[in-house]
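Figure 3 (text version): structure tokens given as input.
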């Protein structure tokens, strides 16, 4: 039986065939990472609020949540720091949408998740599931500094309606803005 998570072995990198990853595979890996982060952040919201705040949707790139709030819950002063601060939009027939403010603790989760996984293995769990790996120009692991800069670059790629990501579809090496900023490429790999 084939493993579910496919770790890239940089020590034996010549035993793989590499090609620039498709935008579709990268988006799927990002959505899978969103599931992992959503679970972690959703549990944080639930535990810190003592069961009064539930995450019902997550953005895979930044910690922005659609929340379900237990009736009568009033956020306290410290709630902003862990994700319990929110704003509401009234819809028709008394329905409300509650959006969590991007909290410092949740930003920290995202930064650590993307930075540590990319620096240590060149792969997040989503990339492992999709057989993708991030490499620098010399086809090595990006390292801690480059991995952090790459995660910060995600925000730049997102800003103009995600144009920094769409750019990958039109380029031969499929680099996004944050890849260009850090001189990295995401490859799809197969064992020879």
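Below: residues designed for each position.
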């Amino acid at each position: 039986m084939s493993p579910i998570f496919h770790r890239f072995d940089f020590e034996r990198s010549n035993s793989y065939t590499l090609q620039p990853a498709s935008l579709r595979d990268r988006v799927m890996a990002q959505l899978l990472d969103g599931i992992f982060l959503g679970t972690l952040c959703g549990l944080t919201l639930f535990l810190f609020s003592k069961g009064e705040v539930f995450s019902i949707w997550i953005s895979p790139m930044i910690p922005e949540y659609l929340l379900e709030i237990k009736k009568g819950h009033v956020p306290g002063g410290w709630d902003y720091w862990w994700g319990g601060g929110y704003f509401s939009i009234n819809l028709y027939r008394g329905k409300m949408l509650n959006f969590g403010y991007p909290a410092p603790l949740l930003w920290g989760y995202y930064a650590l998740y993307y930075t540590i996984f990319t620096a240590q293995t060149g792969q997040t769990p989503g990339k492992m599931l999709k057989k993708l790996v991030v490499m620098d120009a010399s086809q090595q692991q990006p390292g801690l500094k480059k991995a952090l800069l790459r995660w910060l670059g995600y925000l730049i790629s997102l800003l103009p309606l995600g144009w920094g990501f769409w750019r990958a579809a039109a380029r031969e090496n499929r680099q996004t803005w944050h890849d260009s900023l850090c001189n990295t490429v995401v490859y799809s790999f197969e064992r020879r």
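The chain has seven helices and seven strands.
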